[in-house]
Amino acid sequence: MAKFNPWHDVSRGENAPQLINGIIEIPKGSKAKYELDKDSGLLKLDRVLFSAVHYPAAYGFIPQTYCDDKDPLDILVLCSVDLVPMCVVEAKVIGVMQMIDGDEEDDKIIAVAAHDISVNHFNELEDLPPHTLLEMQRFFEDYKALEHKHVTVERFMGREQAYRIIEESIELYNTTFNKEGAVAETSPSA
């Protein structure tokens, strides 16, 4: 019996990189850091955040993408309702937050729920309420501080740069994994 893994078996979306599927791991407002267990495909509790902060948007990943940090590409999805863990949400990409976590690049795609009339009119980061990006930056710069880990938000960039990052993560996924989601025989990381 084949096992289902959301990372490998859910479509990234037919209109990627502009409109993509995001799989939510962490709902907005959570102090719990959930993440996909890559082997089982289940959601696991990684930790409860050490700091008195909570996620400023629904947080998850884009399926069938891969980054240098050996994880799928991260996504923050703005939505007017709570998105539950393991929900697949069609999201319109509006930008990217580039950050350094430890010594690794760790991009976060910023998107809005495509089928939420309260947010789907946002097309660019500049369309968001000004405080939204400040909240995101402050959260990611603070959430690991009490663990004595350093995160720096380098910059926010627009949707064209976000599209490029998504396309690169798709290309890396396609060269790293075969159609069944296993590491490809010709993969440089195998």
Automatic annotation (TrEMBL):
GO terms for biological process: phosphate-containing compound metabolic process. It catalyses: diphosphate + H2O = 2 phosphate + H(+). InterPro entries: Pyrophosphatase, Pyrophosphatase_sf. It comes from the Bacteria. It holds the Pfam family Pyrophosphatase. GO terms for cellular component: cytoplasm. Keywords: Cytoplasm, Hydrolase, Magnesium, Metal-binding. Its EC number is 3.6.1.1. Its cofactor is Mg(2+). Substrate binds at residues 33, 47, 59, 143. Mg(2+) 1 binds at residues 69, 74, 106. It is found in: Cytoplasm. The keyword Hydrolase applies. Belongs to the PPase family. HAMAP family: Inorganic_PPase. Catalyzes the hydrolysis of inorganic pyrophosphate (PPi) forming two phosphate ions. This is Inorganic pyrophosphatase. It comes from Hymenobacter aerilatus. The gene is ppa.
